[in-house]
Design brief:
The complex is a heterotrimer of chains A (362), B (124) and C (577). Chain A is 64% helix and 0% strand. Chain A is mainly alpha-helical. Chain A is globular, with a radius of gyration of 22 Å. Chain A starts with a helix and ends with a helix. Chain B has 124 residues and is mainly alpha-helical. Helices cover 60% and strands 0% of the residues of chain B. Chain B has helices at residues 12-35, 67-88, 90-117. In chain B, 18% of the residues are buried. Chain C has 2 domains: 5-124, Beta Polymerase, domain 2 (2-Layer Sandwich), CATH 3.30.460; 234-576, Orthogonal Bundle (Cytochrome-c3 Hydrogenase, chain B), CATH 1.10.645. Helices cover 40% and strands 17% of the residues of chain C. Chain C has helices at 5-13, 37-46, 108-119, 160-165, 179-183, 234-239, 246-251, 258-273, 279-307, 313-332, 354-376, 380-386, 394-399, 405-408, 416-419, 440-464, 482-487, 489-500, 541-545, 549-553, 558-568, 572-576, and strands spanning 18-24, 27-32, 54-62, 70-78, 83-91, 97-99, 122-124, 193-198, 210-216, 219-226, 341-342, 345-346, 508-516, 519-527, 533-539. In chain C, the strands form 5 sheets. Chain C has a 5-stranded mixed sheet with strand order 1-2-5-4-3, covered by helices on one side. In chain C, a hairpin with a 2-residue loop joins strand 11 (341-342) and strand 12. Chain C starts with a helix and ends with a helix. The mean pLDDT of chain C is 86. Classes of the chains: A mainly alpha (362), B mainly alpha (124), C alpha+beta (577). Chains in contact: A-B, A-C, B-C. Chains A and B meet through helix 1, helix 3, helix 4, helix 5 and helix 9 of A and helix 1, helix 2 and helix 3 of B.
Chain lengths: 362, 124, 577
């Protein structure tokens, strides 16, 4: 192997995928704000951004440029190091979570490449644990920001974040363990492959329950309405990031949007069959007779990665939809809800799955 | 690539991304540093308290009401950690593994029900 | 001389203390000596056949330069017997003190602070006699008649150093704040609690309300509302305008229901003038007042829902409110500060499009209202956030002087429109919706139902709208028509005088009470016989209702405080005046 080959190899296997993935994250972080504003606007009988470019399409860029030119204020009484570290930590964690996520089966892009390349950066055998761990560390960023600001609203926001974390994380873990039981692996790609016949969401009776449990916990993890307690603007002004300005403020937002994408990806991968296309009916139905097989074949024409992204954007839309519709919970109510309802339910789901597997029903 | 074996190279992209994320975050701040204004004065550097000069320091003893629940959380979180490998190996360990885990969960469940009845999950 | 059974009873029990009994627009008025005031009020409150349990208003008029300079008025209402009584106490200039009546009527707290603030009458045994509307460090009492309009100089600068340099009477001395400034308590704060300040610059305090909270965790131990950030001296300004001009400042009180204020003020002045307005004017006033009520409740619904996290509702509500504002614009050319209802009737006749637009609104709105209810009424989270939050007993609410939807939600069917009908409200059939517990959810249900009832009233008024003049033809109040000015000398003189000087109003006092969207809105106008009022007192329902915030919030959480504020629906323009 020549040096040139080695360089090319590294470029193919590392630099290009890293660049593509990073670009994907940044584009999403920026344009999700646009999507959110537009979708919310149309749900609320208004237009949303209209001035910058066609239908305000350049709005995220304008916002970004504006934030670069904003003064960076660190309150005199704040803990300067923690204050600076918090948004950086949060952003790093939300970006790094993408590394372990598979976006599709290995592909040669319809013959463009000479050999098949995987659509993931790394295929960790503990992929799901890795993503969960990063998300939990991200919560420290929130608590850190709340504490370091030396602002009472931020402090309360930070505490709320902690309270929220100890509420949703266990039902979330149990919902994931249910999936792991079904798939027999912690590897995300294998979890998707285990759903080639049947998505986990339609594995009755536990699938839909685990899906809902995970979805609710996921919304809570991203601090989105109706669980946007740490930043509840009508109560705590802006909660944990009240004191942040300019680029630091932008980092919190990018992290939030990146987290939304991660959660949507995970929901798709764990329950909605990842990159598996929709099957309106099992292929074997009516003995594989047309038109079922035709339609299923038609669905297969769309590249798997687009199937995954389609599911992700539908879920993101769903997140925004929730925000437009639901009131915010109080945080003792959230705790009671997850400890008295979600936790027993998730435990029951897990045990049911185990029992049914033992009996050979699943 | 078989995911069953532990391969350290798999974590190389993780390290790259952690660095990249850090560099990106710091980079944004550095670029901003060149273009943004700096006009601090004491009032601007006050923490925000709805337009009133902050009265007490926010860094002080603070009553956390969810202390007991946080303790419960730790226990359940550790339980979850045990459950992950169990779930992965579930197909191989058979009935023995199932019964053992049921006992494990049952013990925790008793504790949970006890805590609930004792009012640990109630606010106040 | 027999005037009223109430006066007879009082004269029997307090022969020395009662004087000057009279009847004014149906209400008995009496004067009580200073030293017997507390006894008389206690007697009025607890005697079963009297039972004046609601102190509607407590205010003061400065009869400078009269020797017994101040008169303090206690306006009482009996829920049981549905009648009112005005008790007056004269306070001399050289010893401006009165006993506090807080122990008898809890609502007197803020009223007495306001009288202290504005007139310098100090109330003995008041637990917390601080200024309420004006800055704490002021030494003057602006509503005294000898205090000139614009007598204060407010330093407008954002530079704190400059303020510190020119510190004098008008600028606040720089000093460390204490617990008392926040909570009205002296001494140390309990360990493990923090004091947090919500407002005046906060997304959900309906403007510039400030509430200092003492928290343990997120549980509220004490909530102290601070008002006065929007104090613009509207009462003082009105004293320096002619009667007709003063209508424009009433718009600025409750700026989401300006026509209610116009109406209350106009009724008080008309009572002084002994002026009857033609029936058509009454009908138009009713239509406008009810449209205003809907518009105001829409703002309440939108902000209330928004503050609990339902982001879309506020935009839906504003969309429908827009239709009402369009109707106002059609009528008067102005969307909010219309000043359309003024002394003598309404300003112009209805435009040809008015009826059509109102009917369109009547046809459209019920289904919109249903869609709002679909979104909230049975929403689990909404129920969790509003049920059993901020409930107080009927007696506590009445003691605190709470009126309007906040009182009716607890099951007290007190509505000024039915208790003391004005503008011919007795000609319309409508229900007074009530709740049971008085929590935030009941307040929500009551207001939603009120909007439906208002629609019914508007429909009846539109159907029965009589033809005829739209304002009084009394030439001493109403401008003569254009053609008469061109032909008659006397009319021209009237026009000139009305415009340049205004009309004089006979000496006396009159109180009008109406049901504004937020509760009982009172206007107390005193005339000294000149074209400008001696005193215009506004009994702002929000101001009084806000006193209930502290007991409502105690024991709740921060998130509940926001819900409770939204449930009270205070409007700071009216609170601070």
């Amino acid at each position: 192997m020549t040096v040139m080959d080695q360089v090319a190899n590294i470029a193919y296997s590392l630099i290009i995928p890293v660049a593509v993935l990073f670009g994907f994250i940044m584009l999403n972080a920026a344009y999700l704000s646009y999507m959110e504003r537009k979708v919310l606007a149309h749900m609320q009988a208004r237009m949303g951004p209209m001035m910058t470019g066609w239908h305000g399409i350049l709005q995220p860029i304008a916002d970004g440029v504006k934030l670069f030119f904003k003064e960076d204020i660190i309150p005199a009484k704040a803990d300067k190091w923690l204050f600076s570290l918090a948004p950086v930590l949060l952003l790093i964690m939300s970006i790094a979570a993408f590394v372990a996520i598979p976006f599709g089966p290995p592909t040669d892009f319809y013959g463009i490449l000479s050999n098949k390349v995987p659509l993931w950066l790394t295929n960790l055998n503990v992929g799901i644990l890795y993503v969960l761990a990063l998300a939990s560390v991200g919560t420290y960023g929130v608590i850190m920001a709340g504490w370091a600001s030396n602002n009472k609203y931020s402090l309360l926001g930070g505490f709320r974040s902690a309270a929220q974390m100890i509420s949703y994380e266990i039902p979330m873990a149990f919902a994931i363990i249910t999936v792991v039981l079904l798939a027999g692996s912690l590897n995300l790609a294998e979890i998707v492959n285990a759903q080639s016949e049947k998505w986990f969401i339609i594995v009755l009776p536990v699938g839909p329950v685990a899906f809902l449990l995970y979805l609710i916990s996921g919304v809570a993890e991203t601090n989105r309405a109706p669980f946007d307690l740490p930043e509840a603007e009508t109560e705590l002004v802006a909660g944990f990031f009240t004191e942040y300005t300019g680029m630091r403020f932008a980092m919190f937002f990018m992290a939030e949007y990146a987290n939304m994408v991660v959660i949507s990806l995970l929901v798709s991968i764990l329950f909605l069959g990842g990159w598996m296309p929709v099957q309106i009916l099992p292929n074997t139905w009516l003995g594989g007779m047309p038109p079922v097989s035709w339609i299923n074949g038609l669905f297969r024409l769309m590249p798997p990665v687009l199937w995954l992204l389609g599911k992700v954007y539908f879920l993101l839309f769903f997140f925004i939809w929730l925000r437009a519709t639901l009131p915010r919970l109080r945080y003792d109510q959230l705790m009671a809800f997850s400890w008295k309802f979600l936790l027993p339910l998730s435990l029951a789901t897990l045990l049911t799955t185990a029992v049914m597997k033992q009996m050979g029903l699943l | 690539m078989t995911p069953d074996t532990y391969v350290p190279e798999h974590f190389l992209p993780v390290a790259i991304f952690l660095l990249l994320g850090g560099a990106f975050a710091v980079g944004m701040l550095v670029v901003g540093w060149f273009v943004r204004p700096r006009r601090p004065y004491p009032e601007k550097l006050l923490t925000y308290e709805s337009g009133i000069t902050p009265f007490m320091d926010a860094h002080q003893k603070f009553s956390i009401r969810f202390y007991l629940i946080a303790m419960l959380f730790l226990i359940f979180d550790i339980e979850a950690v045990f459950l992950y490998p169990w779930a992965v190996a579930y197909g191989k360990i058979g009935l023995y593994g199932f019964v053992e885990m049921v006992i494990f969960i049952a013990i925790l469940l008793v504790g949970y029900v006890y805590a609930w009845k004792k009012g640990a999950l109630e606010w106040e | 001389m027999f005037l009223s059974p109430v006066i007879s009873t009082l004269e029997e029990h307090f022969p020395d203390a009662i004087s000057e009994p009279e009847l004014r627009s149906g209400d008995p008025w009496i004067t009580v000596t200073r030293d017997r005031l507390a006894d008389v009020l206690t007697f009025l409150k607890i005697t079963p056949e009297l039972r004046y349990n609601l102190l509607i208003d407590l205010t003061c008029i400065d009869f400078h330069p009269h020797p017994s300079r101040f008169s303090v008025y206690y306006y009482l209402h009996s829920m049981e017997h549905e009648r009112k009584l005005m008790v007056r106490v004269r306070v001399p200039d050289d010893d401006p003190t009165l006993p506090s009546v807080i122990t008898i009527y809890g609502t007197a707290n803020w009223h007495e602070r306001e009288v202290f603030d504005q007139f310098g009458i100090s109330f003995r045994d008041h637990p917390d006699l601080r200024r309420i509307l004006n800055p704490d460090h002021w030494t003057v009492h602006p509503l005294r008649r000898d205090f000139p309009l614009g007598g204060e100089e407010v330093a407008f600068t954002h530079n704190a150093d400059a303020i510190a340099v020119q510190a004098d009477t008008w600028t606040e001395p720089v000093r460390e704040k204490t617990v008392q400034d926040y909570l009205g308590l002296t001494g140390e704060v309990k360990e493990g609690t923090i004091i947090i300040n919500i407002g005046p610059q906060h997304p959900s305090t309906h403007g510039v309300l400030r509430v200092a909270l003492q928290l343990e965790g997120e549980t509220v131990l004490r909530a102290m509302p601070h008002v006065g950030y929007l104090h613009t001296g509207i009462e003082k300004t009105a004293e320096n305008l002619t009667y007709q001009q003063a209508v424009t400042v009433t718009d600025r009180l409750d700026y989401v229901a300006p026509l209610s204020n116009n109406l209350g003020y106009a009724l008080a002045v008309e009572r002084l003038l002994n002026l009857e307005v033609p029936p058509r004017a009454d009908y138009v006033r009713v239509i406008l007042a009810e449209l205003t009520r809907i518009a105001s409740h829409l703002i309440w619904l939108g902000t209330h829902a928004f503050e609990l996290g339902v982001q879309s509702m506020i935009l839906y509500c504003f969309r429908e409110r827009e239709l009402i504002l369009d109707i106002f614009e059609e009528l008067s050319g102005v969307r909010m500060m219309t000043s359309f209802i003024n002394v003598g009737g309404v300003r112009t006749d209805l435009t040809p499009q008015f009826g059509k637009r109102v009917r369109e609104f009547l046809a459209l709105f019920p289904e919109k209202l249903d869609s709002y209810e679909d979104m909230l009424t049975n929403n689990k989270i909404w129920l969790k956030r509003t049920k059993d939050i901020g409930a107080l007993s009927q007696d506590t609410l009445i003691d605190l002087g709470v009126t309007g939807p906040a009182l009716r939600s607890a099951g007290v069917a007190f509505d000024v429109r039915t208790a003391y009908p004005y503008c011919g409200y007795n000609n319309f059939t409508f229900a007074v919706p009530t709740g049971t517990t008085g929590d935030v959810y009941d307040k929500y249900r009551v207001r939603m139902e009120e909007m439906r009832q208002s629609l019914g009233i508007i429909r009846q008024a539109m159907d029965g709208l009589p033809e005829g003049p739209f304002r009084s033809d009394d030439r001493k109040v109403t401008l003569p028509p254009r053609e008469e000015i061109e032909t008659g000398m006397e009319q021209l003189i009237h026009h000139f005088l009305l415009v340049s000087r205004g009309f004089p109003v006979p000496e006396g006092e009159a109180y009008s009470l109406i049901e504004s969207p937020r509760g009982a809105l009172g206007f107390f106008v005193s005339s000294d016989g000149t074209p400008m009022p001696r005193r215009v007192r506004v009994r702002a329902p929000s101001f009084v209702n806000l006193q209930a915030l502290e007991p409502m919030c105690r024991g709740g959480m921060i998130a509940d405080v926001i819900a409770i504020i939204a449930g009270i629906d205070p409007l700071m323009g009216e609170v601070d005046r």
